[in-house]
Amino acid sequence: MRIVLIHPNYHSGGAEIAGSWPPAWAAYIGGALKAAGFTDVTFIDAMTHHLDDETVRARLRALKPDVIGATAITPSIYKAERLLEIAKEEVPGAVTVLGGVHATFMYQQVLTEAPFIDAIVRGEGEEIVVNLVRAVADGRWPADRAAVRGIAYRDEAQGIILATPAAPTVKDLDAITPDWGLLSWDAYRYVPLGVKVAIPNMARGCPFTCSFCSQWKFWRDYRIRDPKKVVDEIEGLVTDHGVGFFILADEEPTINRKKFIQFCQELIDRGLPEKITWGINTRVTDVLRDEALLPFYREAGLVHVSLGTEAAAQLKLDRFHKETRVEENARAIRLLREADIFVEAQFIVGLDNETPETLEETYRMAKDWDPDLANWAMYTPWPFSPLFQDLGEKVEVFDFEKYNFVTPIMKPQAMDRAELLDRVMHNYRRFYMRKALFHYPWRGTGFRRRYLLGCLKAFLKAGVQRTFYDLGKVGYWGPQSKETVDFHFDEHRTRAPLPAATDDWQAAAERGRKLDEPTEPEAAMACGGGRQQMEDA
């Protein structure tokens, strides 16, 4: 039984400007397959290696696999569909499988437009994929596919698309052993430090329900691993693959304060901060909560925190249910700087009420708060999110390939998309020009200076290559080019049907949230549902 996993060759000029990120999904799925006895697993990373369709076609022709699996987030869905179409052309007898968050919720649309996909995995895939592959290996596919929980497929005889009951979530995350050896580690580099980078996972899910987010919808219930097991994995990445920097894949690893403290202490006890540094995404409220612990986090090797400050205008914060205050954002950034932790402020721009004045306000906030880095992400409602449904006819673009946080999907009432892009680039130019001249070369020595100059190098490299924000593809060369910018939206893509009915999925999600009922500590507010934090004891 030969299995091939493929990562689609999709690029947008967003987070990838900081490095080439290892597709962790392949390691986790591959590890589960090998633990189940399916050892002939090959991974093709078409994205990192910039493999075109014909190169992938030749690889599949040579490998002749029995099962071919791919994954896709929303912007890479068409690339993934095309890869599996090629797979079916070259190896007609192979079972083609697609997983990922987009296909999980939009499986009716995906299977309608891509009939060459034999099955879609709904949700986290380790156990579902193993059960699917067992059915293939035992000769029970497709006759018994209805018995495989957690998949969707086309029933050609009835001419309909069917979904089997939702599979339970993986309850014992510590039992999953990722096969990091499937990846070609020399290709995965973190540009600011020039070292190999990894994206391990400490927890899955989130007990909160931000209107724009897919984490809680996809993972359903919140589960966290034993911190010692996570550090075992990181130590293996350092020892076996020479990794020098990692980013925790969790949406918010500090949500369980007790476990995060244990994780940091374990890193310190093993002396790993001397070998590897790391970064996280987290919330402003968690930074304020842990003010006294920030030096301890830095001692554990935490050097980069990306903060969801989201927007300078309080109106926007309320729209996203963030429930944080502008003044809290400023204080959190100051506390991180004082702890010698590099801080990146994230702003969401491009709402329907965006104006040149509100964009200018975000720049002034970034300047006054003085984070080390700032990022202006385009407002992008996922097609399966409550926010997308709430926006209704305000959503005009249904070309999911452009749902990448760098392309203006939404059009503000007061400006067109080209002007929005231009004003965002104006913010970037001013912010990083100021940092390059007066901040990065002069503030701090040793690691701090090297890291900041490495960040500047990443931005300059992407700027010269015209990959940043896809500027080369859309034809943006500065304010003088606003009239000729072309985002190349595929206008043949029309409004997709509502996501498939997922009553069983939502019921499982509700059960999961009740298992981890959060408590209400004093004055701490969450991103998705009010004054909530995970229980500390």
TrEMBL record:
GO terms for cellular component: cytosol. GO terms for molecular function: 4 iron, 4 sulfur cluster binding; catalytic activity; cobalamin binding; metal ion binding. Keywords: Iron, Iron-sulfur, Metal-binding, S-adenosyl-L-methionine. Residues 9-143 form the B12-binding domain. Residues 506-537 are annotated as: Disordered. Its cofactor is [4Fe-4S] cluster. Residues 192-419 form the Radical SAM core domain. InterPro entries: BchE-like, Cobalamin-bd, Elp3/MiaA/NifB-like_rSAM, Methyltransferase_Class_B, rSAM, rSAM_horseshoe, rSAM_sf. NCBIfam families: BchE. This is Mg-protoporphyrin IX monomethyl ester oxidative cyclase (Anaerobic). It comes from Caenispirillum salinarum AK4.
